[in-house]
């Protein structure tokens, strides 16, 4: 059944109630009408008959009295006209006996009239007034009185009946009133109750559906609207259930998987023992792991995306790595343990080494940066220990090495006494090794001083051309011997740099020595400098053997030498060069392709004035 039919059906009780009230009203009004008609038919007609009989009788009688006089002939003719209507009314009354006692009274009237009529006949036939008077007085007058009396009785019987019936009618009409009011109230209340109950039943599925919709809106996707039937609401409920089903499936499949993936990736970074901070492309903190919350006291909710609550040293490191990665410079790798930052913790200071990686979006662009702060407390201690040991050993080597060199030199020169040629060769070889050893020891001490920050730089404006020439000159002989062309390219009008000239020369000298050493005959080494914003960029480019990518990052580490490369020093030159450049506030790097050549570069801050001015 459709909803429209159900709603129509709900109106039926009310309509039925109205019908019942109508029928009852028509019935009772009909009864009241009947009662009224009965009074008219039964009693009023009798009353009217009696009145007419009485009137006619009076006329006949008075005509008779008048006729007792002589000229009474005319009035009897008039009286004769009354006889017939009187008898007609009497007949009608005889056929309208309705009340108890009425029959006897009517019979008495009929008899009295019969007597009167026959007396009247005799009266009419009498030809003298005297005879008439005798008839009148003897027969007619008693019959007249009897008839009058009977008329009075019939009248009274019917009038009393009319009064009684009118009272009864009044009572009945009061009862009808009460009955009608009761019927209207009962029908109205019953009809309304039945109608509203039916309407409610018809509309109950709507409330079931609306509750289900509300629950779905509150996130309960398992909710369903249980509605039976085939009407429009049942159809709507089925459609709603299908929609909830689809939503649930969708959430279970996509959102569920998404949440699970998010939860597991959060669990994965939480499982890392080292702090991890993930930055968005705008630089705000997007996510941190548990270790970061504990060690750095940094939380995404608390920070609002900023690093304000992190200790200043750590913040500076995080900002540097973030700027490096988001600036499109690729992953950030620490140069060594000296890059580690100290964080105060309950169990003592911890050293954290930063590493940064770009987070790539679907389109391949950088959409964020993740920074891992690796706990290198123990490793850094080892490194410090190693550095201390190396520094101590180097320091302890210096004095004996000096006297060793002196002794070898004196012996080789034959100061203590003459030596054979063979002995001299051995002593020269020993002296060469001693020189090399001295160089390594000097480098080590230099490096250790640089790393510990014990080196005082004598920074002043330095001419780039002069320092380049001074760096190239000592290697010219070696370059010529190896058949390598050594040249200098200088951008005209280049500004001077802020640097310690001796140290800067040492850096350039190291780079040129390496370049010459790793370039084969016929190759070329070029040293150049050019301006780059607020800085001057130095480059030493060669057309030598080049360096494989896997060694390029490690090449600046202490003692690191490319395996299988032509021999050089102890692997300290580049470390020292990088330390010096960084001590000046500059950066150092390289680009190299195996078999094509390498270009080592570094930048230094420039001074305000152009070269040659100062
Ligand atoms: P060393 O004093 O032993 O040369 P460095 O620190 O200067 O140590 O260099 C480290 C390593 O880098 C060297 O062993 C060498 O293999 C490689 N290297 C340095 N410069 C060049 C270059 N210009 N071409 C190729 N390899 C180079």
Indicate the topology:
Blueprint: H1 3-67, H2 73-94, H3 102-125, H4 129-217, H5 232-271, E1 276-280, E2 285-288, H6 290-295, H7 300-303, H8 312-326, E3 341-343, E4 350-360, E5 366-375, H9 377-412, H10 421-451, E6 460-462, H11 464-472, H12 476-482, E7 485-490, E8 495-499, H13 501-517, E9 524-532, E10 535-542, H14 549-552, H15 573-583, E11 588-593, E12 597-610
Residues 510, 514-515, 518, 542, 544-545, 547, 555, 561-562, 565, 568-575, 598 line the site of adenosine-5'-diphosphate (ADP).
What does this structure look like?
Mean pLDDT is 86; it is low at 609-614. The protein is built from 15 helices and 12 strands. Helix 1 runs antiparallel to helix 4 (129-217). The two termini are 105 Å apart. It has helices spanning 3-67, 73-94, 102-125, 129-217, 232-271, 290-295, 300-303, 312-326, 377-412, 421-451, 464-472, 476-482, 501-517, 549-552, 573-583, and strands at 276-280, 285-288, 341-343, 350-360, 366-375, 460-462, 485-490, 495-499, 524-532, 535-542, 588-593, 597-610. The chain has 614 residues and is an alpha+beta fold. Residues 510, 514-515, 518, 542, 544-545, 547, 555, 561-562, 565, 568-575, 598 line the site of adenosine-5'-diphosphate. Adenosine-5'-diphosphate binds next to helix 13 and helix 15.
């Amino acid at each position: 059944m459709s909803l429209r039919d159900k709603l129509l059906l709900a109106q039926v009780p009310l309509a039925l109630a109205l019908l019942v009230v109508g029928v009852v009203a028509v019935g009772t009004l009909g009864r009241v009408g009947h009662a009224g008609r009965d009074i008219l038919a039964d009693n009023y007609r009798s009353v009217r008959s009696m009145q007419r009989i009485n009137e006619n009788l009076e006329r006949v009688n008075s005509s008779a009295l008048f006729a007792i006089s002589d000229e009474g002939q005319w009035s009897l003719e008039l009286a004769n006209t009354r006889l017939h209507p009187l008898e007609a009314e009497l007949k009608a009354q005889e056929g309208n006996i309705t009340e108890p006692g009425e029959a006897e009274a009517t019979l008495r009237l009929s008899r009295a009239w019969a007597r009167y009529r026959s007396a009247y006949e005799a009266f009419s036939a009498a030809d003298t007034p005297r005879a008439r008077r005798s008839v009148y007085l003897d027969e007619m007058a008693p019959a007249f009185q009897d008839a009058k009396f009977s008329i009075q009785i019939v009248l009274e019987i019917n009038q009393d009946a009319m009064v009684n019936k009118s009272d009864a009618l009044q009572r009945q009409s009061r009862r009808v009133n009460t009955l009608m009011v009761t019927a209207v109230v009962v029908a109205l209340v019953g009809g309304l109750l039945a109608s509203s109950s039916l309407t409610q039943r018809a509309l109950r599925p709507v409330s079931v559906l609306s509750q289900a919709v509300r629950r779905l809106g509150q996130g309960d996707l398992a909710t369903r609207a249980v509605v039976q039937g085939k009407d429009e609401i049942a159809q709507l409920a089925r459609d709603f259930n299908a929609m909830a089903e689809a939503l649930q499936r969708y959430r279970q499949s996509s959102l569920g998987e998404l949440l699970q993936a998010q939860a597991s990736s959060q669990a994965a970074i939480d499982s890392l023992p080292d702090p991890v901070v993930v930055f968005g492309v705008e630089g705000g903190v997007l996510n941190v792991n548990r270790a970061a919350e504990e060690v750095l006291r940094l939380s995404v909710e608390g920070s609002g995306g900023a690093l304000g609550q992190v200790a200043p040293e750590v913040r500076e490191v995080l900002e540097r790595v973030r700027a490096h990665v988001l600036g499109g410079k690729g992953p950030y790798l620490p140069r060594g343990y000296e890059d580690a930052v100290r964080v105060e913790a309950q169990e003592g200071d911890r050293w954290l080494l930063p590493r940064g990686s770009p987070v790539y979006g679907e389109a391949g662009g950088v959409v964020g940066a993740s920074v891992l702060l690796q706990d290198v407390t123990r490793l850094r201690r080892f490194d410090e220990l190693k550095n201390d040991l190396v520094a101590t050993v180097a320091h302890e080597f210096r004095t004996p090495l000096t006297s060793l060199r002196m002794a070898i030199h004196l012996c080789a020169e034959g100061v203590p006494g003459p030596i054979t040629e063979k002995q001299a060769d051995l002593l020269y070889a020993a002296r060469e090794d001693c020189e090399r050893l001295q160089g390594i020891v000097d480098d080590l001490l230099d490096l250790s001083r640089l790393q510990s920050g014990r080196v005082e730089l004598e920074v002043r404006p330095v001419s780039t051309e002069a320092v380049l020439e001074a760096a190239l000159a000592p290697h010219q002989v070696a370059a010529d011997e190896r058949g390598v062309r050594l040249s200098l390219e200088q951008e005209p009008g280049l500004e001077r740099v802020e640097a310690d000239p001796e140290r800067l020369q040492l850096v350039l000298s190291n780079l040129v020595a390496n370049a010459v050493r790793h370039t084969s005959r016929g190759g070329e080494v070029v040293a150049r400098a050019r301006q780059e914003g607020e800085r001057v960029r130095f480059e030493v480019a060669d057309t030598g053997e080049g360096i494989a990518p896997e060694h390029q990052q490690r090449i600046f580490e202490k003692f690191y030498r490319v395996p299988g490369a032509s021999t050089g020093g102890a692997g300290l030159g580049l470390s020292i060069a990088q330390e010096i450049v960084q001590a000046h506030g500059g950066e150092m790097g390289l680009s190299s392709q195996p078999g094509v050549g390498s270009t080592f570069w570094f930048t230094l801050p420039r001074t305000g004035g152009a070269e040659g001015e100062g």
